[in-house]
From TrEMBL:
Coiled coil: none annotated. HAMAP family: MurD. The keyword ATP-binding applies. The keyword Nucleotide-binding applies. Residues 106-279 form the Mur ligase central domain. The gene is murD. This is UDP-N-acetylmuramoylalanine--D-glutamate ligase. Residues 301-407 form the Mur ligase C-terminal domain. Transmembrane segments: none annotated. It comes from Holdemania massiliensis. It comes from the Bacteria.
Amino acid sequence: MKVLIIGAARSGTQAALLLAAHHHAVTLTDMKQIDAKRELEEAGVQVLDHGHPEFLKMENWDLIVKNPGIPYQAPFVQYFVEKQARIVNEIEVASWFTDQFAYAAVTGTNGKTTTTTLLAELLQRKRPNARAAGNIGVPLSEIVREQGDQKTDIALEVAAFQLVAMEKFHPVVSVCMNLTPDHLDYFGSLEAYYEAKMLVWKNQRGDDWFLINLDDPEIVRRCADLPCRGVTFSLNQPADLCVRQDLVWLFDQPLFALSDLHLPGKHNLQNAMVAAAMAVKMGVSADQIRAGIQAFKGVEHRIEFVAEIQGARYYNDSKGTNVDATCVALKAFDKPVILLAGGYDKKTGFEGLKPVLERIKTMIVYGETRAQLKALRPDAIVVETMQEAVDRAHQLAGEGDIVLLSPVCASWDQFTDYEQRGRQFKAQVHALAAQSAASQTSQPD
């Protein structure tokens, strides 16, 4: 098979190595420099970086593998769309080489990463080589290259970008956690984005499960014609998966007690409920689930406690890249917070923040969207960068205050991704904590 991979990054590189190992003729092209060029070429991959040569359009490709982050409207990709070329993504390709793998797929606007991370930890209690993969940052192709001949359970985080380029990918159990406006810059309309999310169940069948969030009417109305078994869940009403008498129940089986979960907020309870139910479908016992829930410490960049400085507590929610995520983060605290917000504009607007503005004591805005956020909260303090926002928050924060980075926006105006943003925030907070500690110890009695 003659394959063109558009976009290297980690997933494109791993897909190229996997396909080359299975004796396919692979060409990998990227607008930027490809750091793994030597390894790829030694594996037999043709590598073309620093641009997409025009001659690639003249070749007869059996398959195009596109990086999910590259829009279909990008001129080079659009050419192949108009030619009706076969275009898939890295997860789809990797799944072709995994007869021994069983998949639990997690999508939705928010909660994906926490649910996927916890689910992987629960699956590892049944099968130690179980892994988390996909949009969480680990390409499925990488795991296939490492353990493709082993029986393996995979907790797979799947973004809408990835779902639109799936052909045969088949999870045993899947969920769409929720649907709220996001990524309109990519999909063009809310309906297109929502429909992309619901593709997670399109190849399921028979006894496979799709978990239906009864608390989300957008999801409920899209589940009339499921090809598999629908298993309902709710925080607020009777469902197959719900809370009764301080226990989480799936059908007639208790899975864990509310006191077993150590993460704050109802959203984390929902994440844990879903992960536990998916683990049941994947063969994890109730005892293993309970032990896994008790041991779970949370996810980096998701309402992550960083440090306490002179009585003020600092939290990193850099993964809060949309209105709904930031609303959830604000609701996790029982007092008003000093909120740091701003970043790349995904064209989704910020009106949805209005119901939670009362939860904000002081708002410090920065980045590309600072003027829009200032219009929403006129008393907001405006700075240029996140670093300046942290310094300003440190000046303002007093005993008992909460300082929360939950940007409401993507990071791409000033950072490569939300992880870089979150780690820079944590480094700056830790530096401030060290300075504070040093000044305290240097003061005379």
